[in-house]
Protein: Beta-L-arabinofuranosidase domain-containing protein
Organism: Streptomyces carpinensis
Amino acid sequence: MERRTFLTRSMSAAGAVALTGAAAPAQALSSPSPVAPAAGSHPHYTANRAPLQQEPFLRLPPGSITPKGWLRTQLDLQLDGLNGRMPEVSDYLDDKTSGWAVPERDGWEELPYWLRGFGDLGYVTQDSRTLELTRTWIDRILATRQPDGFFGPSSLRTSLNSGPDFWPYMPVLDALRTWHEYSGDDRVVPALTGWLKYLHAQPGTLFGQGWGSARVGDTIDTAYWLYNRTGDDWLLDLVRTMHTHSADYTRTIPTWHNVNLAQGFREPAQYGVLAGDPSFLAATHRVYDTVMGSYGQFPGGGFAADENARSGYHDPRQGFETCGIVEYMHSHQILTRITGDTLWADRCEDLALNMLPAAFDPRQKGTHYVTAANSIQLDNVAKSHGQFNNSFAMQAYMPGIHQYRCCPHNYGMGWPYYAEEMWLASIDGGLCASLYAESSVRAKVGDGTTVTVTERTDYPFDDTVTLTVSTPRAVDFPLYLRVPGWCEEPSVRLGGHPLPARRSGGHLVLDRRWHDRDQIVLRLPMRTTVRTWNSNEDSVSVYHGPVNYSLRVEEEWQQSGGSSAWPEYEVRPSSPWNYALELDQQDPARSFTVERTRARAANPFTHSGTPVLMRAKGRRLTGWVSDDQDVVAPLQQSPARTTEPVERLTLIPAAAARLRITSFPTASTSGKALEWAAVTASFSGVDSPQALLMNAVVEPSSSYDQTIPRFTWWDHTGTEEWIQYSYAESVRVDAVSVYWYDDTGHGACRVPESWRLEYLSTDGQWHSVDGAPDYGVATDRFNQVSFPTLTTTALRITARLRTGFSGGVLAWRTQPDGPRA
């Protein structure tokens, strides 16, 4: 199925659900009060006109910030990698066949996605080739303008229900805006005015259709940008129309598609800038907290949606789309400026430092569709048991122009936007250090004096940030320094002496007269913390400061296709990965030791280049396995029983790990701990047998419960089939309960004709359980079988399926007769 068709269907199928309003946020960070600019102050950069609410922070013009250090390395890799050389590999960027250059030809999101990131890559690196090609494509796009304001592929006038599809224009508008900010091109404002007038002439129902409905915040952002330069009141009427008719994030979650959510959840806060009502910002917080509370319960800042978030599929093996990573970062950046709340910058940093680098191979020659917190093999093989929402292969690294399509074109904005959002102008004529990395910024402050601030730091691998001010004369302005939510005791010194600072919106604010060569040393002391994810089986993750750590799994890289210039890679493990951590119960953080390495590589997001690692202890957990398609099994309850010997483990920054275990079980030798089971079946077609352990504690609402994962033997019918639990050590069991799946009236699964329970004896043979009464096949309840206590390393349900029908199980529980001594 063509990707656009599949995604549109998945969006509409997701439906809308009410917000809970009470879900726990994904990160345990406080939300400080917003920045309060000093009275009588004024900005030096374009700010909101009335009636728009003033935003505490403003984007600086592209080119104001020069990234250095590891961030510059990432940008250089991007220049020579997929985004920087995309015209070599993507036929969507052919100027002779793209509708963005030749309106009679087709075109959709691919070129707009690419150009948005590619242009900003040129602005932050000043690469002449990139800047020239950006100009060329801007010229081509502007040359397609029509008298009514329409531009681009003519087919987009009628491609969505016989009306215009305004979604693919959203990234084009971003590209045009930043080009204007960089170059001053006087064609851009008229072009944007014409396009938004064209939209304003459309019926309001247009904004309730297609991808544009779920992502309308992007167009609202452009409307504000234009209004602040022209003052045209009709633009605000357009914003009101778009908000009224588009997907409603104020009372519901209208879609569970991951990119829609990553872009769309901020729309209420954006509309609140016009409405002046704080309830809209509260709605954005509620959507975020609801999504992350249900699906974001693992490290990295993303959420479980390897296309759409699915009820019951919240394990850290579920991936987050690369498009979702960069769009979520962008949303957090916008919200940082709107609110002045450092919480959003913290969340952007989490994604950038712990997830984004692992979305690419180390040379950025390829990307993959999804990145997961727990992932032990990245192959180019489709998974057919329902492990993921998509049936196509999503994990290998490749250019993926036609396999992944959106992500290779869209990922390019990730690092350039991050670089451009490191420093912000404040509404009171100052500067804000919002995201930390080695860099310099040149900006107007105070009375209009242009200053340069140079930042030297190894952050996030070190806790010290040194800022040096260069100014032609003494100048008064406030300098805002973000204090990350994990940092408890920040300090700042000037010339070696402590410097008083006020707190505002999560920032340290230094409001003083600055002189040439003033040097500020900011310390953000980092400590090791261990987070327990209660809703993901009490698994744990380890952090030091902002960096999350992953088990170092030795990676075997194999080129599986492509060319020497554009290789395609699969990555397989060559060392064990199934470990449970041994923790100090009184103080878990004492279980880990941070070590500095001798690595001086410019790229810290590789095994050999990381400047830090951790030492830990753990035990093998042999019941934790991969399935028959090499997908890591979902987590089971911690602590996990294991008597394997304690081993010394090495953990590395998660962003340096392409194979990654970042949500760990905890280990216990106690007989009261859970014995993990490996699950296999005689046949698994479209539903993974591991669903049974994912749902070990669920209470299905009926035998046709569609809100939880299930296992079926489909499409086998009328056959004898089995499903099995295997344990690393012997378990004592005296009862089992089975909840059968039955989709009468909907499909071809029924309760079985009959079944029996078997156990593996010490002679290696399967035997039927003695003393068991009749085996129940009732629908809509658990069918329990009790029997004299037996000791075994494996249990098996063998079912005789009804003639002409298949069957399945929603939950299968074993009841031990009591804990071990």
Residues 1-16, 20-34 have pLDDT under 50 and may be disordered. The first helix runs from residue 3 to 14. The radius of gyration is 28 Å. The longest strand covers residues 720-741.
